[in-house]
Amino acid sequence: MADVNIENKNIPKAEENLNTAYQISKEQAPQQALAINQKLTNFYVENKDFDKAIEAKKSVLKENFVKENSQKKVEQIQELAEIYIKKMIRKKQLFYLKTLMILLYRKAILLKLKKA
Q1: Are 45 and 30 in contact (CB under 8 A)?
Q2: What's the confidence (pLDDT) of residue 83?
Q3: What is the pLDDT of residue 62?
Q4: Dihedral sign from CA coordinates of 50, 31, 28, 58
Q5: Phi, psi (5° rounding) for residue 62?
Q6: Distance between CA atoms of residues 61 and 39, nearest Å
Q7: Global confidence as pTM
Q8: Is 35 exposed, middle or buried (0-12, 13-18, 19+ CB in 10 A)?
Q9: Whose CA is closest to 21, among 7, 50, 5, 9?
Q10: What integer is the mean pLDDT of 40-55?
């Protein structure tokens, strides 16, 4: 169901579906819960909602089925680090975009003053 909502760009419903599936599967099928958490995390990253992606990864790190499996724990920590890097890159991109806008604005003012 979440896939259909993602395709239809129904973000809130897709998020709700993935969260519900995760909550159900973490008790009954931990391996499936990891896959759903990954899908949820990817969904957040694709929508540039890095804070929610980080929150989702941190929550799975608290689960016993991750804590008790050192390989899974390492994988989840690596993925969390990648999300933090993407978030930092996004912040830098926004900073440089704002800087560019300011410079272009100043240049436009200077051109107007030269014409006047």
Answers
A1: no
A2: 94
A3: 94
A4: negative
A5: -85, -10
A6: 15
A7: 0.76
A8: middle
A9: 5
A10: 93
Residue 3 has pLDDT above 80, yes or no: no
Q: Helices marked H in the chain — which ranges? A: 2-7, 11-28, 30-46, 50-61, 64-67, 70-115
Distance (Å, whole) CA 61 – CA 16 = 20
**Rounded to the nearest 10 degrees, what angle do helices 30-46 and 70-115 cross at?**
10
pLDDT in tens, 56-114: 999 999 999 999 999 999 999 999 999 999 999 988 988 999 999 999 998 888 888 88
Position 8 confidence tier, pLDDT thresholds 50, 70, 90: low
Phi, psi of 56 (to 5 degrees): -65, -45
18, 39 contact by CB (below 8 A): yes
Distance of CA 102 to the CA centre of its chain: 28
**Phi, psi (rounded to 5 degrees) for 60:** -70, -30
CA dihedral of 46, 49, 53, 59, whole degrees rounded to 10: -150
Q: What is the pLDDT of residue 64?
A: 92
Amino acid code (one letter) for 107: K
User: Rounded to whole angstroms, how far apart are CA atoms 42 and 5?
Assistant: 15
